[in-house]
Amino acid sequence: MRHCEVDNNRQVNLESHQLVWLDPDFNQKNATNIEHLRKIVDYTKLFESSEDCLKYIKQTQDTTTFLVCTKELAQEYIPQIHHFKHVLKIYITTDIENQQKWFSNYSKV
C-alpha cells in the first residue's frame, strides 16, 4: 500500500512522488485518465482552485511532483510553479493541434 488513510477523506503520501491534477471542471473522462496514471504515480491529489493547488505544491517541496493542468489555466499558472525544483514535469490537457507557442518557453511542459 503506497498511501494510508488518516481519516475518512484524507490520505498521507508515503511515496517520494505525486501527481497533482488542477482542473476546475473535473469530469468522469479525467477520472478514467487518473486511474491509468495511478499505475505510474499512485498518490494523486485533485484541485479545482489554482490558489489551493499552488499552496499545496509549496507545502510538498520534499516530494517530486508531476502536474496536470488544463489549457485554460496553463498560461497563468505555469509561470507561478515552473521554477520549483520538485516539480519535475507539467502536462497540459490539450491536443497537439492546439498547443500554444509559449509552451516552448518552459522546459518542464
Can you walk through the features of this model?
This protein is an alpha/beta fold and 109 residues long. It has a single domain, classed as Rossmann fold (3-Layer(aba) Sandwich). It has 3 helices and 6 strands. A hairpin with a 5-residue loop joins β1 and β2. The longest helix is centred in the C-terminal third of the chain and has 11 residues.
Helices and strands in order:
Blueprint: E1 3-5, E2 11-13, E3 17-22, H1 28-37, E4 44-47, H2 50-59, E5 64-70, H3 71-81, E6 87-93
Parallel strand pairs: 3-4, 3-5, 5-6
Antiparallel strand pairs: 1-2
What's the gist of this structure?
With 109 residues, this protein is an alpha/beta fold.
Helical content (DSSP H or I, runs of 4+): 25-40%
Show unreliable segments: 1-10
Strand content: 25-35%
Secondary-structure element order, N to C:
EEEHEHEHE
The named CATH superfamily: Response regulator
Broad CATH class: Alpha Beta
In spatial order, strands of the major sheet run 4-3-5-6
Discrete helix count: 3
| CATH topology assignment | Rossmann fold
Query: Looking at the structure, what is the overall shape?
Result: globular
Structural class: alpha/beta
Structure summary, number of beta strands: 6
Total of domains: 1
Biggest sheet, in brief?
4 strands, parallel
Q: Could you tell me the radius of gyration in angstroms?
A: 14 Å
- Overall mean pLDDT stands at 79
Q: Using the 3D structure, state the CATH architecture.
A: 3-Layer(aba) Sandwich
Distance between the termini: 30 Å
**Multimeric state of these chains?**
single chain
